[in-house]
# Entry
Amino acid sequence: MSSLIDSFTIELRRGTLTLAVLSQLQTPQYGYSLVQRLEQAGVSIEQNTLYPLLRRLEKQELVTSSWDTTESRPRKYYVISNYGNEIFEQLKTEWLTLASELNTLLQGDDK
Amino acid sequence: MKLIEAYVYEVTRRLPKKSRNDIALELTSTIEDMLPDNYSADDIKLALEKLGSPAHLAANYRDEARYLIGPSLYDSYVDTIKLILPWALLITLIVQVVQNILLLNEVQSILAILIKFVSFSIVDLIMVALHVLFWITITFVILERSGVRNLTVNEEWTVEELDKVQIIPDKKGISIGEILFEFGWFIIFTICYFTAGHFIGIHQTTDSGNLLFVMPIFQQQTLLAFAPFFLLAIALEIVLLLYKLKHRVWTMNMAIANLIIKLISVVIFIIIIRNTNLINAELAPYLANLMNIATIKIEQSLSYIVILTIITIIITTCIDIYKGFHKAKI
# Structure
């Protein structure tokens, strides 16, 4: 029973991860700082999903990356690209519409 | 530190060479970010546990999952096995029975023969099953790797594309399994045709228990003389198979092509089998001597077998031709 709920929850969240990640990349972030930001916002994302996701987004040209070697520890920073921003805005609109539609449906059920 | 290196190595060795270095660097710095200032070995373990299994992480990095046989082919893989395996086992069993009947000339207790038969059969059946599974799997792995049926999704889709979509009724379609099955038959048939003189015939167990090849049933020279016709028939059949593979659905043209090619094949087959030099001339006297009956009777029954075979072939071919037209009309 609970495993069924788990798989539904994972499925529900999977689609929103890209949106969550893109929303946090308006300023350059490296992998771990991104994890912390998301966790602070209450969005739990498995790290072994996040890092590959970042690379995929880079391949799709939604984000760009650069190595910062000025500090003692080299870090790879990711930031959203112009193209990524366009996509992000459209996705955001989609999400807001979907959320409000679903809200209407779910509240209608309560009555 | 060694733990981190090992972890990163375990992830990157599973990835394509060109991206390894970059991912290794990124992963290392990320893991170090996760650790507190003065970290202990336990802290490292905790951080790595949080990252999860290296294989899983590497799999997430890969763009597409790797399959031995992917979801797009899996169904036809299973169908092919279901189609071929029972036939292969049945044929093996029949060959075994025939062989054992031909061996019955020795004085042996029925029980001993039965025990030998059952134990040999089980081993043979297992071997054949393994072979069938192995070769079908290899074939499908090659199909998978070569991307024969890589499903490509169009990025931009228009309603007009629906016009091009062909809805194939189940009964009208030609499955890959069916095509592979026929293809396998042609290969087996061709091999038998050219090597019949060496192993299709009467075997006898020697005193030491080895199988001795006494005499072939067919005259290899006659078979070779007809080889150009035989190869022509096989070539036509394979062209038809390729045509089927391309369209994967019965059409009127295909049914007509099937009709013509099957007629040619049957004519060639009848010419070959009707040839009086096909069957080894020594066979009838040998069998007659063995069974203690007149040679003429054996020759008679051999010609009955030939006629029966021809009738069977004609009937199955007619059914096949009819099926083609029937399916094309659905």
In short: Chain A has a mean pLDDT of 87.
